[in-house]
Amino acid sequence: MMKRKVPADVIADEAQSERKKDKRKRMSIKKKKRASTGTMDVKSGSVSSLASNVTSCESVMSEDENVPDNMLDVTAVLCPPVTPRTSSLSRSTTFFKKPVLPLSLLKASEEDTATPTNSPLPPSPPQTTALDSHTASLPLPPPLAGRAYTVSVALPGSICDNAQSPELRTYLAGQIARALAIFNIDEVVIFNDNPGVKVRGKAFEGVTKKTNANIVLARILQYLETPQYLRKALFPHHPDLKYAGLLNPLDCPHHMRREEKYPFREGVVLKRPTKKGKGCFVDCGIDKEVYIDKELIPGMRVTVRMDSESNNGKFYKGTAVSPDAPRKELGTYWGYRVRLADTFSATFTESSYKEGYDLTIGTSDTGDSVDIVDIRHFKHVLIFLGGLQGLEPAIESDESLKETEPRTLFDYYLNTCPNQGSRTIRTEEALMITLTALRKQLAENGLD
Questions:
Q1: From the CB of residue 382, how many other CB atoms can be counted at a distance below 10 Å?
Q2: CA–CA separation, 242 and 223 (whole Å)
Q3: In this structure, is residue 303 part of a structural domain?
Q4: Of 56, 179, 336, 338, which residue is most buried, by most CB within 10 angstroms?
């Protein structure tokens, strides 16, 4: 008769079960030996019978009347009381009864706040913290001080002509926009350094090598500065913005989410019928429309001061204010303006501020080192950056300028990257370098 062949996996399972049985037998034998010899089981944490059978050293020594008193202390050290070991959870429960929190958040207990009867000081009242109740909240940080001074940057639009493709040209504009937002630039001026090209006039036809790079750069910068919920209403489909999806968002403070609450918001005026002279409605990117008391043209972008107290259920109420109000009142950066200049001199003469620029800074590799120059106080500063060949070609091409020496046109003519390792520094790189080098001095010398 042929024997039935047993599968290999069944044999392996039987061998494993036999090994487990042998292991359990060995463990039981070890436990019996420990109980007979009086050792302590470390895993279970129980004390063996040896501790109960050992005669106390303290009791034996105390029976002899001739033993000195200080001998009892020595025996206490030699024969310390045996205590059972506990697990890690029980140890933490035993030794750390209070929560491990900063002292400022710990609630004073009755024992800590109690004053002795012989103390002349009255008992201190218990502190109320955020841990006492669910409704309590930590105090909000104090509001930032307003900022009155402004920082403007001027650069030529011809820097986009150096890009090899429309995608790279669009990405270059995105790099400039990111730098402007990071360093809280309030205005960017795009000046024309090519006398044969007019900035204003004929309609623009898209991002190609035959188009005006000044307008392309200006349109992309405006698009990125606009909050996302307003772009559809303010920017229709245009060839200049074909590759805008490649750009990194600025994520400025005024690019708010739908649920965020802040005293100011950006909005666009809606074409909604209202009584004549009775205001208009604004879309601010929230769940309800905002009613303002001024009658504005539909499609216009407006900064609104939100009225948190008035809400009749159908819409919110607000007030139209200047775009500079968040910066002047709260010190909050609220984006940058974009301005086009036909010539280099128009950058100075067509200022966005009534008093003009009281400080101008030119940048070049032939200027003075920024490390040894201390700029003076200012209210509105304008920083110039050159194109592929620097500022000199733009100055020479401007017929309205009598002076062609750059040093005579600026209050400071600086080299913001001394000892540069490359023969040329691209404008988008020079922008980051210059603003980094001047950041501390601009913050200290700006007049508020």
A1: 25
A2: 12
A3: yes
A4: 336
Q: Cite the DSSP H helix spans in 38-159.
A: 50-53, 57-63, 71-78, 88-95, 110-113
327 torsion bin: left (phi>0), alpha (psi -120 to 50), beta (else): alpha
Residue with tokens 């067509």: 350
Domain-terminating residue out of 274, 295, 321: 321
Q: How far is CA 125 from CA 111, 121, 219, 266, in A?
A: 13, 12, 62, 47
Distance CA 124, CA 312 (A): 46
Span between the terminal Cα atoms of the chain, in Å: 108
Range of the domain at 211: 150-253+332-445
Residue 124 pLDDT greater than 60, yes or no: no
Phi-psi region at 29: left, alpha or beta (left = phi > 0; alpha = psi -120 to 50) = alpha
Q: Which two tokens stand for residue 255?
A: 């690019």
Domain contains 51: no
Q: Do residue 292 and residue 316 come from a single domain? A: yes
CB 431 within 8 A of CB 363: no
pLDDT at residue 135 in the model: 33
pLDDT greater than 50 at residue 147: yes
How many whole angstroms separate alpha carbon 225 and alpha carbon 302? 14
Buried b (16+ CB within 10 A) or exposed e, 163-178: beebeebbbbbbbbbb
Residue 83 has pLDDT above 50, yes or no: no
- Between vectors from CA 280 to CA 274 and to CA 283, what angle results, nearest 5°? 120
pLDDT in tens, 187-197: 999 999 876 66
Q: What pLDDT is recorded for position 144? A: 60
Number of domains in the chain: 2
Closest among 380, 374, 367 to 409, alpha carbons compared: 367
Q: How many CA atoms lie within 13 A of 237 on its CB side?
A: 0
- Cα 194 from Cα 394, distance rounded (Å): 7
| Interatomic CA distance for residues 296 and 320, integer angstroms | 10
Residue 409, phi then psi, degrees to nearest 5 = -95, -15
Same domain? For 436 and 400 the reply is yes
Which 8-state DSSP code applies to residue 340? E
Which tokens belong to 13?
């399972």
Residue 378 DSSP symbol: B
Q: Which amino acid is at 113?
A: T
